[in-house]
Design goal:
By secondary structure, this protein is α+β, with helices and mostly antiparallel strands. Helices cover 50% and strands 9% of the residues. The strands form 2 sheets. The chain has a 9-stranded mixed beta sheet with strand order 1-2-9-8-3-4-7-6-5. The structure holds adenosine-5'-triphosphate and magnesium ion (MG). Adenosine-5'-triphosphate is lined by residues 51-52, 64-65, 67, 113-115, 138-139, 143-144, 182, 184-185, 229.
């Protein structure tokens, strides 16, 4: 039976759901994360699986990562695990390293919010807290559930289970305060609503509409990171629609918002739906491909109104102001404009601009071709263009290279253009 714990008088007591009454099974937890949980527990510490890992497993989804929170302090964690490195200045986090580059992140229960990590003062021990405090400093109720390895129960301080059941993304505490503390939570709210196919609670929606411009109070690097996470996990179309609906699109990407006012948003929606489809068939998009998808309909609009001579310059002029605003790294900007400019050639497979040797050898070709496949498949006649390229290039130029095959071929002769990631 679900019960309230009996050991706290100072704080609201959590709902504790015993193993027999929830669906989170140990067999779906990463074995290395399980090892870490058990070992911390054997050394006398509280050890919980936390955050997205618990949320996703309860929803029957595959978590991106398995984070752990514990009562052990960083120096204690380091003593327990030989394969541990402490990172971070403001909050010391433990990274436990496993074979194949896998890292399990372990954090000590915290008393305060983790916002503005880069800018804040160096941590002192009073930033550590109780499980209660650690739950309440988190952003959304569905992100504050704990899985307790000592009895396999789920611990819920914030009514996250009810919200998960009702498919509602709700801030912990007053949304106005929580968004003011950290405006990036507005983006995170939209990201989780799209990712989990949930609604954002109406008060949060109202506040985002009202204070969307406050997003610039957050660190730009975090805005960029959240956009990449939002659009690269198979629910970009839904996230894009929500960004537009709540007005954040006009704040972050006014040029695109303006374009949508002129030509409508269907093109963007179609491109992202195709990108999502590819994600669900196993292709995680590179960040530059995500941005190329986002910018393409706008670039195409600019291209159609131009003489179309210097494509790279056209792409640069179109995307530079946008990239500057969200601080897309220079190197990534270069790749994005190459991908955009390449579309004109790819669509012109039969035309005078077509120079197979030039296009096929380029490093960005695989992502350029993926965008081409995405866009062409939304247009009439596009399928024939794709198959013309495939005839030139083998089965699918957008497929990632098989490293073994590439290595074998390299010994014999020149690299095959379709599978060449560099050059
Ligand atoms: P994902 O599947 O995208 O990784 P996640 O829930 O694990 O989702 P992360 O960004 O990895 O999200 O953060 C891990 C956890 O840390 C969150 O679930 C949340 O509890 C907490 N958290 C992260 N960012 C914030 C924030 N800005 N404010 C409060 N809590 C946060
Ligand atoms: Mg995570």
């Amino acid at each position: 039976m679900r019960s309230r714990s009996e050991n706290s008088t100072l704080h609201p007591e959590p709902i504790i759901v015993p193993r027999s009454e929830h669906s989170l099974s140990r067999s779906s937890i990463d074995p290395d994360a399980l090892k870490v949980l058990y070992r911390l527990n054997r050394h006398g510490h509280i050890a919980y699986l936390v955050g997205g890992g618990v949320r996703d497993l309860l929803l029957g989804k595959k978590p991106k990562d398995f984070d752990i929170s514990t009562s052990a302090h960083p120096h204690e964690i380091k003593k327990i695990f030989g394969n541990c490195r402490l990172i971070g200045r403001r909050f010391r986090l433990a990274h436990i390293h496993f074979r194949g580059g896998k890292i399990i992140e372990v954090s000590t229960f915290r008393a305060i919010s983790e916002i503005n990590q880069e800018d804040g003062p160096v941590s002192s021990d009073n930033t550590f807290g109780t499980p209660w405090e650690d739950a309440f400093r988190r952003d959304f109720t569905v992100n504050a559930l704990f899985y307790n390895i000592s009895d396999f129960s789920v611990i819920d301080y914030v009514n996250g289970l009810k919200d998960l059941e009702n498919r509602l993304i709700r801030c912990i505490g007053d949304p106005e305060v929580r968004f003011r503390e950290d405006p990036i939570r507005m983006l995170r709210g939209i990201r989780f609503a799209a990712l989990l196919d949930c609604d954002l609670d109406s008060e949060s929606e109202r506040l985002i509409r009202e204070s969307k411009d406050d997003i610039w109070e957050g660190a730009t690097s975090r805005i960029l990171e959240e956009i990449i996470r939002m659009m690269g996990r198979g629910t970009a179309a839904s996230a894009f629609d929500r960004l537009q609906e709540l007005g954040l699109l006009s704040t972050l990407f006014p040029e695109i918002d303006q374009h949508i006012r002129i030509e409508g948003g269907d093109f963007y929606h179609d491109v992202f739906s195709k990108l999502d489809k590819r994600f669900h068939s196993g292709e995680t998009p590179d960040p530059w491909l995500i941005f190329a998808c986002l910018f393409y309909p706008y670039f195409d609009f600019i291209y159609r109104g131009s003489s179309g001579d210097d494509l790279l310059k056209l792409a640069r002029d179109a995307i530079s102001p946008i990239c500057r605003r969200i601080q897309v790294p220079k190197r990534m900007q270069d790749i994005i404009r190459q991908i955009l400019a390449a579309q004109v050639r790819l669509f012109d497979v039969r035309g005078s601009r077509f120079k197979p040797r030039t296009v096929l050898r380029k490093a960005y070709f695989r992502d350029a071709f993926t965008l081409f496949e995405i866009v062409a498949s939304t247009t009439s006649g596009g399928r024939e263009l794709i198959s013309e390229w495939q005839k030139l290039e083998g089965p699918s130029p957008s497929q990632k290279p098989d490293p073994k095959r590439t290595r074998r071929r390299r010994k014999r002769g020149p690299k095959p253009p379709a599978t060449t990631p560099a050059g």
